[in-house]
Amino acid sequence: MGIEMPVPAKPEGVDAEVWEQMLHATPAEARHLIREGKFAAPTSGLCPGYAQANLIILPREQAYDFLLFAQRNPKPCPILEVTEVGERMTHICAKDCDVATDFPGYRIYKDGVMVDEVDDVVDYWRDDLVAFIIGCSFSFESELIEAGIEMRHNTQGRNVSMYLTNLACEPAGSMSGNTVVSMRPIPYDQVVKAVQISGAIPKVHGAPVHIGDPSVIGIKDIAKPDFGDPVDINPGEVPVFWACGVTPQSIVMNSKPPFAITHAPGYMLITDTKNVDLKG
Amino acid sequence: MGIEMPVPAKPEGVDAEVWEQMLHATPAEARHLIREGKFAAPTSGLCPGYAQANLIILPREQAYDFLLFAQRNPKPCPILEVTEVGERMTHICAKDCDVATDFPGYRIYKDGVMVDEVDDVVDYWRDDLVAFIIGCSFSFESELIEAGIEMRHNTQGRNVSMYLTNLACEPAGSMSGNTVVSMRPIPYDQVVKAVQISGAIPKVHGAPVHIGDPSVIGIKDIAKPDFGDPVDINPGEVPVFWACGVTPQSIVMNSKPPFAITHAPGYMLITDTKNVDLKG
């Protein structure tokens, strides 16, 4: 394995034996454990070196607008794969990968309102659905950790903190709304390194969108994230904000398509794609 | 203007006074000369530093498939802008820019067959059309020239040589076909530099797709390009091939959508977007 990585803390509620299996799983093995319903928790820190991914599933009717939205907003919505209409299996980012079962958690939206949270969406599947698999900042965390930068949510066994901002996305057809960001507290003397390392992988959100004062991007209380868990920010650390693949959920809440499925924030797909293959 | 650039040779058939105007025009002024019908020739070498662009216009009915095709094939089809349905004016890559008049030449396709070549498409415009503005390798030529690399087609006053290859694109829905490439002869000792300079701007096709033996990518006779003009390849030079925004024309010919409009190969849109803003 080469470099020794610090082990992330076990998230609350996860069976110790399953956690041990997840820590040593290949991406395919991790997806199978998730598919079998054994793991339903945040995936940060798992399968280091492999890209993790966000999800939004929409009917074909809304798919063009969303694809164009993603093209116009590549920072929050870097697309790794778009499935064929009605097709649950991915072909590009992973093999033997079912978008209806292989995320540890899903949210169902009707007319922009969340109506259900479920472990799989087999019962919600329809022949007209298209899945958009979107890059996730969990992907570059392993490189930040290798560079000696602590991922506080990992060491605290929590989900990353995510916030709705006042940064408007470029609208496309029926799709509009504001950017969601993930936040990591970084010591001042590691901020530049964090920018450069993450900036090298635009397909998983790339460089931060904001560094420092949360109020500048419309975040009122850093201790109260809109998604995920709060994490400690220690003296000498600055909050650094990356565009987040939960942005499509803010778009769904704002644009109110009749039907949408997303992943649960922090509960990501672990793909077969290596981060290194997404560089450049 | 800083660095002195070599002046490209006047293409055949262009009025000397108009050519002089084009050589000193801003992108907006160049578009106006083209819109007024005064310039209908290849645009390579004009407005150095500004991105030039390819065009494909499709009915909304086929737009999702093409947008997905471009997402899956970013090397030949890096999208700079997609216009709103029925809208002729661009909003992102240029201001005061009409996609129906501001390219120096257009081709009309019905069921995959070219049926007309025209200077503007005002009479062909329909309310259901979507224009895809796609990056062009003419954009990075000014940086290659600055680096001391001759653009043979410029110095010969010819259109760049373009070839249909055997490199299959990743299909998407109804869209499939092979990659078209542009070719520039480069002295051996400048090939690496050419790769690095062009590779820094993926939005205008980025690094080459092939260097050397044309037969490896299915080109039978380098002296007979499928689009554009032949150019001289001197001893000590190697043909270098870049993915080309004429690829959508090969897709149209292969996939046979009922209606499509493209630019005439080499007759590009000159945008207001600086190459430097497309980097990274």
From TrEMBL, chains A, B:
<protein>
    <recommendedName>
        <fullName>Putative hydro-lyase C1880_05515</fullName>
        <ecNumber>4.2.1.-</ecNumber>
    </recommendedName>
</protein>
<dbReference type="InterPro" id="IPR009906">
    <property type="entry name" value="D-Glu_cyclase"/>
</dbReference>
<keyword id="KW-0456">Lyase</keyword>
<dbReference type="InterPro" id="IPR016938">
    <property type="entry name" value="UPF0317"/>
</dbReference>
<dbReference type="Pfam" id="PF07286">
    <property type="entry name" value="D-Glu_cyclase"/>
</dbReference>
<dbReference type="GO" id="GO:0016829">
    <property type="term" value="F:lyase activity"/>
</dbReference>
<dbReference type="InterPro" id="IPR038021">
    <property type="entry name" value="Putative_hydro-lyase"/>
</dbReference>
<comment type="similarity">
    <text>Belongs to the D-glutamate cyclase family.</text>
</comment>
